[in-house]
Amino acid sequence: MKQRCLALLLIVPFLLASPAWALFDAQVLTGKRSTEFKFGNSSNTESGTELKAAAHLDPIPLVPVGFGLSLSQINWDKSNDLNFKSLDGFEVGLEVEAWLPIDLGGLQFYGKLGYTVLGAYVATSELTPGQDIKVAYKPSGTYIAVGAKYNFIMRLGVMLEVESGNRELEFDEVKDLPANVDASAFKSKGEAPNTSFLLGVQAGI
Fold first, then answer.
1. What is the pLDDT of residues 170-188, one digit of tens each?
2. CA distance 63 to 182
3. Cα distance between the two ends of the chain
4. DSSP-assigned letters across all residues of the chain
């Protein structure tokens, strides 16, 4: 009898944690991303809008860990300091999500660890009046995130997430460059540490 009671006490917290029973979840978040672009000795911080979608699979019942994929689309504001008219990017990341196996006041706290495996940052700049060029970089690097979820209808809930990461930027290509301009001036590596504040929804099955 005592052994059964002990087993029940150990299992109940996991039963109360709906994420541990969600075999699959899908998330959509949006918010602001602040990024410090570093190239050589120069750096500048720019803000932009981020839209992120993620999906995770929890393959082991009662173990609050999921493995998944994320896709982010970022549009930074026009910057005179970095001399670009627009800067757009997308990232694909592999990530692990873990959460506390109990509710705290209806909230479920979680964390993520991920790595950006591919993507592209494309900057459009005016080389001369009427002559625009596009410089593309490949981002890669780790990121971590913490957040809280609140489920209000079965597996449907809202979530708040804060992410911090650092992407290495590797030169990919430059488009629409006049033949008389040396492309080597654009072949530089950079870094892009960032912080994102995101709000979204999650649905699980």
1. 999 988 887 777 777 778 8
2. 55
3. 34
4. -HHHHHHHHHHHHHHT-HHHH-SEEEEEEEEEEEEEEEETTEEEEEEEEEEEEEEEE--STT--EEEEEEEEEEEEPPBTTTTBSEEEEEEEEEEEEEE-SS-BTTEEEEEEEEEEEEEEEEEEEEEETTEEEEEEEEEEEEEEEEEEEEEEETTEEEEEEEEEEEEEEEEEEEES--TTS-GGGG---EEEEEEEEEEEEEEE-
Specify whether the CB–CB gap between 110 and 96 falls below 8 A. no
pLDDT of residue 36: 94
Instruction: Look at residue 1 in the predicted model and tell me its pLDDT.
Output: 52
Report pTM. 0.83
169 token code pair: 């930027």
Note whether 48 and 76 are within 8 A (CB): yes
In one-letter notation, the amino acid at residue 158 is V
